[in-house]
Write a structure and sequence with these properties.
This protein is mostly beta strands and about 725 residues long. Helix content is about 0%, strand content about 45%. The chain has 1 helix and 87 strands. The strands form 8 sheets. The chain has a 30-stranded parallel beta sheet. It has a 29-stranded parallel beta sheet, with no helix packed on it.
Length: about 725
């Protein structure tokens, strides 16, 4: 029985020793026993209360460790340069801690620190319960962190910290809310560097409901699976801002509510490689340097930021909205092949280069679309676009992008390239490379406006798909347009200072109203199907035109919307190798400024000068197949400045009317035709027509030279 009484007594004594209240009845010395309600100095297991409305308040003479501390309204404590450590609950309400030193709470349950003034280094680490840290004035560096098992509020708000702040959210149960909870609605103000860390599975907020003022640097380290939501209600950073978010961490939202612009006086350094969503809006920094690198995110919202740094957003897999940013630096944007969602890049001003890659096999890339402000993109440096996926790649989708320097497009994916969909301008050179296997290419196919290109145009396409280029105008000689084996071709109203080649197209071909300072080559294939219309073009160099189709006629001088005729400044060569007709000057009289040479080896008919024409140089025709009709409609005279050389050995018809040449030389030799018409021609050449076997009409010709006419013994028909 005595043993039981002794044990109970010991326990009661221990409980009494743990609860101790300062009364200061003797002096201000913490170490004086008579200043305490228990007449004993607190120990590491003591729960200490310091009430208000006293005369003497404690001053430390040595380092102190206790369990819990409660400082009531109006109370104070002078650390006198010493270290004060607590291991239990902490409650400080409208109290004062002065004297420098260190004020440390380690492993507390609950922390309640409100409306107090502390002139000391403050460390509150490893708490497990609720933390309300409101409206305090702290002069000293401050550290606050919870534990992974912490449960309860984490509210840090309304504090003025003259020093640094280190804040860690490690909880797997409750989010960390910096900038939330102050009853006075006062914001946090941190004068020194702030370092935030999210290591738990719950979110870390900064400026949750009030805009925190960071006078120096703010750095955020993100390794936990919880998200980081920075500047939720705005804020400002007087120094540099940095965020590091590693693989495995949660999503990152930086001023995602865009309540106001977040001003960063220094540099911005953001490194994210975590596979989660990334959202950054209305961040404005004023110092060049730093970088923003976001690798392999899910969705991306990057809007209305003003950054003086290089930007790289690569390999994203979800939606991307990149709108209305002002970037002084180089920019790289790319999605992944498995990406799904919008790809909208619009309204951005980039003072630097832009590299944009559309690799998605699911969604098209839309440059120049989606900006809520309806602003267009403006790129001052070289722009490099790449289409590697199975979906289309648009440039200037709904607004004309302004490219101040070069624009180069590389096209290796099966998706199409639709460039200058709503116009645009290029201050440097424009190039497109689309090799075998890639999709179709449309360049200003809507022809909304002229697309001016200050430099050269270099286009290389060999992909077997449709090619459409309209109203592109360049001002610098050089470059080339080479389109090989396309399907259909639309080449309309372009002004180019380069050689142009459209070889072996298999679909329809429309070549209208182009101004080419250079040579031009146009040819179809034997299996080509569709219209072949060439009209209204002004070509200062040579023209080579081949009709190889066995399915559709080719009509040069036909169907231009402008009703202009073709004008060819250099030598022109026509090749007819197919079984369908080659028409020249079909509806309008083509002007050939130099020589016109025609080779006719296919079974299709040749019908030229249908609406007259003029030739500034020599005219020659070599025909071994089909019929040949030269101004057979007897339209106006066809003047030829040079000689005429015609050699026909086919057995088709030959009809030539109202050709007039002014230079002696050349020959006309027609051997074994069927019907022959030679009417109202003025020729300065020897002429021989032998072995015709059907009708022969030779009327009103003026020939300066020898003339020989003979029919075949079996000839039947008129001989006039």
């Amino acid at each position: 029985m005595k043993t039981i009484y002794l044990t109970i007594g010991t326990m009661l004594l221990a409980g009494a020793l743990q609860a101790q209240t300062w009364d200061g009845s003797t002096d201000d010395d913490w170490g004086t026993a008579s200043n305490w309600s228990t007449n004993s100095v607190p120990t590491s297991s003591s729960n200490v209360t310091i009430p208000g409305s006293l005369t003497n308040y404690p001053k430390l003479g040595a380092n102190v460790t206790i369990a819990a501390l409660t400082m009531q309204n109006g109370s104070s404590m002078n650390l006198n340069g010493k270290t004060f450590t607590m291991t239990g609950n902490l409650s400080i309400l409208s109290a004062t801690v002065s004297g420098g030193g260190s004020f440390n709470s380690s492993g507390a349950g609950n922390v309640d620190m409100e409306s107090s003034t502390l002139t000391t280094t403050l460390s509150i680490t490893g708490y497990t319960g609720t933390a309300h840290i409101y409206d305090n004035s702290i002069t000293g560096n401050t550290v606050i962190s919870n534990t992974s098992g912490q449960g309860g509020d984490n509210y840090i708000d309304g504090n003025t910290i003259t020093g640094t702040l280190s804040l860690t959210g490690a909880s797997n149960n409750n989010e960390m809310d910096e900038g939330y909870g102050s009853p006075t609605s006062t914001k946090n103000h941190i004068t020194g560097d702030a370092s935030f860390s999210c290591t738990g599975t719950k979110n870390l907020f900064t400026s949750y409901s009030r805009a925190t003022q960071f006078d120096a640097d703010l750095s955020i380290s993100h390794s936990g699976s919880g998200g980081v939501i920075a500047f939720n209600s705005g804020g400002s950073v007087g120094g540099d801002f940095s965020l590091s978010s590693l693989s495995g961490s949660g999503s990152n939202a930086i001023n995602s509510g865009a309540v106001s612009v977040v001003s960063v006086a220094g540099t911005v350094n953001v490194t994210v490689a975590n596979g989660q969503n990334f959202d950054m809006r209305s961040i404005k920094n004023n110092t060049s340097g730093g970088s923003l690198s976001v690798t392999g995110p899910a969705s991306v919202e990057f809007r209305t930021d003003t950054l003086k740094c290089n930007v790289s957003i690569t390999g994203y897999t979800g939606t991307a909205h990149i709108f209305d940013n002002s970037i002084t630096g180089n920019t790289v944007i790319s999605n992944a092949s498995g990406q799904s969602g919008d790809n909208f890049i619009d309204g951005n001003s980039i003072t630097g280069t832009l590299s944009l890659t559309g690799a998605s096999n699911n969604y098209e890339m839309d440059e120049g679309y989606g900006s809520p402000t309806s602003h267009n993109n403006h790129i001052t440096g070289n722009a490099s676009f790449s289409c590697t996926g199975a979906k289309n790649f648009f440039t200037s989708y709904s607004r004309p992008t302004q490219f101040d320097a070069d624009l180069s497009i590389s096209h290796s994916g099966s998706g199409g390239v639709i460039a200058f969909n709503s116009g645009g301008s290029v201050g440097g050179n424009f190039s497109l490379n689309s090799p075998s296997g890639s999709g179709y290419n449309n360049i200003n196919s809507g022809a909304a406006t002229v697309v001016p290109v200050t430099g050269t145009v270099t286009i290389t396409v060999a992909n077997g798909q449709d090619f459409n280029m309209q109203r592109v105008k360049n001002n610098t000689l050089g470059g080339s347009v080479s389109v090989t084996s396309p399907s259909s071709v639309y080449f309309i109203s372009d002004t180019l200072k380069s050689n142009v080649s459209f070889a072996n197209y298999t679909g329809a071909g429309y070549f209208f109203d182009n101004k080419i300072t250079g040579n031009a080559v146009i040819s179809n294939t034997s299996s080509q199907s569709g219209d072949n219309f060439i009209d209204g073009n002004n070509i200062t160099g040579t023209l080579s035109l081949t009709q190889a189709s066995n399915n559709y006629d080719m009509s040069e001088g036909h169907n231009s919307p402008s009703s202009n005729a073709d004008v060819i400044g250099g030598n022109t060569t026509f090749y007819l190798s197919g079984s369908k007709t080659l028409n020249s000057s079909n509806d309008r009289p083509t002007q050939f400024g130099s020589n016109l040479t025609i080779s006719h080896t296919g079974s299709g008919n040749l019908s030229i000068f249908n609406s007259s024409a003029s030739i500034g140089g020599n005219f020659s025709l070599t025909s071994s197949a089909g019929s040949d009709y030269l101004n057979s409609g007897y339209s106006s005279k066809v003047p030829i400045g040079g000689t005429v050389n015609i050699t026909v050995t086919s057995h088709g018809e030959f009809n030539m009317q109202r050709l007039a040449n002014n230079t002696l030389g050349g020959t006309v030799s027609i051997d074994s035709p069927s019907n022959v018409t030679l009417r109202s021609d003025t020729l300065s050449s020897n002429t021989s027509i032998t072995g015709y076997y059907a009708t022969g009409h030779f009327w009103d010709n003026s020939i300066t030279g020898n003339l020989s006419i003979s029919n075949k013994y079996s000839q039947s028909g008129d001989n006039y």
